[in-house]
Amino acid sequence: MRKNKFVGFLILSIIAKLSLNAQEHIVSLDEAIAVALENNKKLKVSQTSIEIADTMYNQAMSAHYPTLDVEVSAMRMDQAPTFTMVGSTTVDNSQTIALYNGLSGAAAADGNAFTSGVYAQTAANTPATSSLPINMEVQMAGRDTVVSNINTKLPLYTGGKISAIVEQANGGRKIAQVMRERTKNEIIFDVKRYYYGVVLTKQLKQLSEDTIERMGFISDLTSELYQGGSMNVKKTDYLRTKLSVSLLESLNQNISEKETMAKAALLFAMGLPYNDTIDVQDTKLMDPNMGASLTTLVEDAYHFNPQYKTLKLAVDIQEAKIDEAQSGYLPMVGLSASAQHIHNDYEYGVFNETNDRSWTIGVGVQWSLFDGMRTTNQVEQSRLEKIKLKQQEILLQEGLALQVKQAFMKMQSSHKQFVILSEAVEVAQENRELNTRAYQEDMVETKDVIESQLFEAYSSADYYRSIHDHALAKANADFLVGRALEDSVK
C-alpha cells in the first residue's frame, strides 16, 4: 500500500513539475517563424554542414602553400657499429735502397769501411717492392644517435590539379549554403502551413459555435411555436432542430480536435516543448491576391530554387573534375629542401664534426608518359557525368515548372472560389436573417429556416477554406520558387 502511494505521489509530482515548466505563447506569423528559425534543429545541422564544407575548402587551399615538416628520432643500437678491413698493399722500396746506398758512400768517404759495408749489404738485401698486410677494425659510431630533420616542399606547377580541387571544394561550400537556404525555406513553409491551419480551425470553430447558438434559438422557438398550437410546426420539426443542434455540436468537437492537432504541429515546427500551449494572434488570413504571373514564378524558380541551384553547382563541380582529370596529361614540378643534424655519442667516426650537419635543395619533375589509358578514361568518365547532370537539369526544369504550375493553378482555383463565395456568404446571411424573422412570425416552415442556417454555415466554411487554400498554395509557390515570404498574414 505504501509503495502504491509513493508511486502515485511521484507521478503527481512529475505532472505538477511539467505543468509548472509549461509556458503559454501567443504569436504572430513573423514571431512564429523567428522562433522556429532559432530553435529548429534541422537548421543547426545545416549550419554544421556549412562549417564542414568550409574546413574542406581550407584543406584544398592549403595545397597552394609550402609544407614544413620536422622529424626527430632517437635510437640505441645493441652495439657500436665497426668497419673491418682485411688485405695488403704494395710498398715501393726504391727510396729506401737509395738511402742505404747514400749512407754507405758517406761512411766509405769517412774511412769507415765496416759501416759502409753494412749499409751496402742492407741495400743489396732490400727488394725493389714489398707487400704490407692491412688487417684492422675501426669504430664507426657510438650506440646512441639522435637524428633531426626539417623538410619543406612547394608545388610549382601541377597542370591545374590544385586549382581544380579548390574549385570543387568551393562548389561544395556553395552547395552547403544553398541547402541551408532550402532548410530555412522548409521551416518557414511548415510554420506557415500549421499557422494557417490554426487560423482556419479557429474560424471554423467560431463559426460552428455561432451556428449552434443560432440553432439553439431556433430549437427553442420551434418548441414555443409547437406548444403554442402553430399549424406549420409539428413535433417532427422540433425533433429535426434538436438533431441539427446535436450534429453541429459533434462537428464542433471534431473541429476542436483538429485545432488542438494544428497547434501541436505548430509547437513542433517552432521547436517548443510539447507541453507548452500556443495560440495565434491573427483571427483571419489576408484576402487572396494573385500577384505574379505563372511565367514570372517559373523564371524565378529557375533562378532561386535551391534544388535547381544545387544541380547547377554540381555541373560546375563536375567541370572542375574534368580539369583535375586532364591534369594527368601534364607534368608536375615541385621544389624541395631539407636540413639534417645528427648527434652521436662517439666523437669521431662517421658522424664527426664535418658530417653531423647537412642540407639539400632541389627541383623535381614527375610526368606520367604512359598509364594504360587510365587518365584518358578518367577524363571521359568526368565528361559523361557532366552530360548526365545536364540531362538531369533539363528534367528538373520540367518538373519544377510543373510543380509551380500546379501551385499557381491551385491559387487561381481558390481565388475564383473566394470571389464566388464572397457573394454567396452575403446572400446566405441575408437569407438566414429573412427566414429567421419569417419563422418568428410563423410564416415559413421549419425546414426552410434550418436550411438557411446550414447554408450560411456551409458557405462561410467554404469561404474560409478558399482563403486558407489560397494562402497555402501561395506559401507552396514561395517554397518552390525559393523565396519564402513571412508577410502572408494580414
TrEMBL record:
InterPro entries tied to this protein: OMP_efflux, TolC-like
Annotated signal peptide: 1-22
Keywords: Cell outer membrane, Membrane, Signal, Transmembrane, Transmembrane beta strand, Transport
Location relative to the cell: Cell outer membrane
Cellular component annotations (GO), alphabetically ordered: cell outer membrane; efflux pump complex
GO MF, one annotated term: efflux transmembrane transporter activity
Chief location category: membrane
Domain of life according to the entry: Bacteria
Family designation: Belongs to the outer membrane factor (OMF) (TC 1.B.17) family.
Protein name in UniProt: TolC family protein
Organism from which the protein derives: Sulfurimonas aquatica
